């Protein structure tokens, strides 16, 4: 396995490790994003066992000890499994996440106390502005959240739009169809009442780029893609509800 690096926006690097053994032959990619500024920020730490690969990739871009912020979408191994490895090598680094994640998991699991972010709070990392947005249960996990980099209008949407394969770093092709195909395999989205409204609220940000954790980043009509995804989940939710006893 190797970790590929692509700059998908101004000083925003996508680190991608494709694992061919997960759902072969397409395989499955794990992406982290490094946002450079006076206070460099990582979104997703990578799996704990992938730390040697991911940290070596980051070291090709900057000294790893300069990392300041460790962020991720929710408490799961691929999102934050290596957070303590990062805290160990970067003495000034701090985990930052929403209130629920900090209270439920991170106050205990992180080796140094995390910074608690309120919904909509911005971390100015010097040259980039990272807004944290709570998205409870979307796509899964009650501590779920995303980040939005305001200067480049990049929405780091975590597991939303998850799809298989080892596609290009950036695509203008359809990402909704592949996401629904992956959903049929993984059933990873919490099909509840908040999914469609939350995804539609993200569309109000009018992102220029959707940075996906599993799959290619997207630079087409992001607003349409978010609304299409919301509608598809709404349809699935209605179908599921229709099958329930009254
Ligand atoms: Fe996840
Ligand atoms: Fe993930």
Automatic annotation (TrEMBL):
Protein name per its UniProtKB record: ODP domain-containing protein
Pfam families, sorted: ODP
Alphabetized Gene3D superfamilies for the sequence: Ribonuclease Z/Hydroxyacylglutathione hydrolase-like (3.60.15.10)
Domain named ODP: residues: 29-165
